[in-house]
Amino acid sequence: MGQKVNPISNRLGIIRGWDSNWFGGKNFGDNLLEDKKIRTYLNKRLEKASVSRIVIERTLKLVTITICTARPGLVIGKGGQDVDKLKEELKNLFKKEIQINIFEVRKPELDANIVGMNIARQVEGKVAYRRAIKMAIANTMRAGAEGIKIQITGRLNGAEMARKEMFKEGRTPLHTFRADIDYCQTEALTKVGLLGIKVWICRGEIYDKVDLTPNFNQEKSNGRPNNNVRSGRGNRRRNNNR
């Protein structure tokens, strides 16, 4: 079963918290659709900012959006101009009070979404897919991961028939719920069609009790996050290489 299901959803409530945190009641469907639209808009708007995760929290009058990115400078802009502009755009689109927080991903090599997007971007730029994947695996293992697995499918090298290739290094125990497995599924648009890319990264095992509520407390100075502050989950890891 662990080989089939999404590793992130399989660990929700155990070692992983939810990306949407609110109680909707009768408005559950509307709020869910609005969250989907917000994420779609932000991922398209911040395509070059290496966005890893978007966490949305709602109260009665306020929508708080936390953007986890490897390049916070591109999101914040000079003197915070870009993030203020983004905030106004979201207010006009969804007619609600918006608050935006920026959280810096300190080790993008250990984030499956960022690794997958980098591979897709290189493949679209006509870099050989094997070269792009092997470089990603080497960088991830060097950053302290316990294991990584990457699968690419489609008309590889322009072949007539689509096929699938898998690249592995280290261990990725999908059946172990305490294993911190990050997962990404993305696509690369090439001249011969779409290539599907899946990335699994094992960042160690978590034995202590985990606080599943979002914890992105970072002191900001001049619009930029403080790099010395770690996320709440990072302090509880057995694997300290992250």
Description:
This protein has 6 helices and 10 strands. With 242 residues, it is of the alpha+beta class. β7 and β8 form a beta hairpin. α5 runs antiparallel to α6. The protein is globular, with a radius of gyration of 19 Å. The C terminus is likely disordered.
User: What's the shape?
Assistant: globular
Helix content: 25-40%
Mean pLDDT: 88
The name of the CATH topology of the largest domain is GMP Synthetase, Chain A, domain 3
Q: What sequence of helices (H) and strands (E) makes up the elements?
A: HEHEEHHEHHEEEEEE
Distance between the termini: 28 Å
Unreliable stretches, pLDDT < 50, 5 or more residues? 218-242
CATH level 1 class label of the largest domain: Alpha Beta
Radius of gyration: 19 Å
Organism: Prevotella pallens ATCC 700821
Region (Disordered): 214-242
GO cellular component, one term: cytosolic small ribosomal subunit
Biased composition (Basic residues): 233-242
Produce the secondary structure layout.
Layout: H1 7-10, E1 20-21, H2 28-45, E2 51-58, E3 62-69, H3 72-76, H4 81-94, E4 97-104, H5 112-124, H6 129-142, E5 147-154, E6 163-170, E7 179-190, E8 193-205, E9 220-221, E10 224-225
Parallel strand pairs: 1-2, 3-4
Antiparallel strand pairs: 2-3, 5-6, 5-8, 7-8, 9-10
